[in-house]
Amino acid sequence: MISIIIPVLNEAQIIEQLIQHLVDSSSTITVSEIIIVDGGSTDKTRTIVEHFIDKNTSNKKPNVIFIVSEKGRAKQMNTGTKYATGTIYYFLHADSFPPKHFDKFIIEAVKKGHKAGCFRMQFDSNHWWLRLASWLTQFSWRACRGGDQSQFITKTLFEDIGGYDERYVIYEDNILINELYARNEYLVINKKIHTSARLYKKHGIWKLQYHFWTIYIKRWFGATADELLAYYKKHIC
After folding, report:
1. Strand 96-97 relative to strand 63-68: parallel, antiparallel, unpaired?
2. Of the four, 71, 88, 103, 118, which is 20 to 30 A from 26 by CA?
3. Per-residue model confidence as pLDDT tens digits over 108-157
4. How far apart are alpha carbons 193 and 144 in whole angstroms?
5. What sign does the CA torsion over 234, 176, 45, 24 have?
């Protein structure tokens, strides 16, 4: 069984659409619950999720759970696992929509011995660079990985690693991915997850890409979690 865990913060514009997509695209046989972990939203995120739950109480499965956590994606995702009943965790960003039958693809991968992995990605943009970046995600190169591609991992492996490193307010996905690559435990499923390019649209494609590359290189040369966060706050957030 798969437990879907989604960290959110002020996602009122998209969260209902995502939950409905997950319900429509998966099977109640393989998905045990969808866990929405809120980091302190000040918009209508909680109201929308709770209304969605109430509206679908009699006929909607898998179960949707809303919980509140300390702010920070690593903390939120780790908190979500405490409520998960599945043997596979599937971590998903609120603006990423996995392919139809994503649950089937994940379970097939795990049955073949792949304990962790992701989907290839497609941005919702026709800009040539984002199209190229999307195309490159089909390959297994470490440099082509990121949290927007989602992350499936067996409960056993996740606990063995120790979960997400909560020292990282940003880059937490990459820290876990680095560990998985070091263990040779990673598979890219050749199906597309569609994700929003909203951050690129907000900051400008080249400006944001430059800052992402800079963060990647800083971490490569040993920058601490606090140093990465300070850079992110100064140039992006």
Report:
1. unpaired
2. 71
3. 999 999 999 999 999 999 999 999 999 999 999 999 999 999 999 999 99
4. 14
5. positive
Q: Which pLDDT belongs to residue 28?
A: 84
The per-residue pLDDT for range 68-86, each reduced to its tens digit, is 999 999 999 999 999 999 9
Residue ranges of the domains in the chain? Answer: 2-196, 199-237
Q: Give the separation between CA 66 and CA 47, rounded to whole angstroms.
A: 10
Residue 181 has pLDDT above 60, yes or no: yes
Burial letters 16-41, b for 16+ CB under 10 A, else e = bebbebbbebbeeebbbbbbbbbbeb
Any idea which fold 2-196 has?
Answer: Spore Coat Polysaccharide Biosynthesis Protein SpsA; Chain A (3.90.550)
What global pTM score does this model have?
Answer: 0.95
Beta-carbon count within 10 A of 222 CB = 7
pLDDT, one tens digit per residue, over 220-236 is 999 999 999 999 999 99
The structure tokens listed for 226 are 């606090």
Contact between 164 and 175 under an 8 Å Cβ cutoff? The reply is: yes
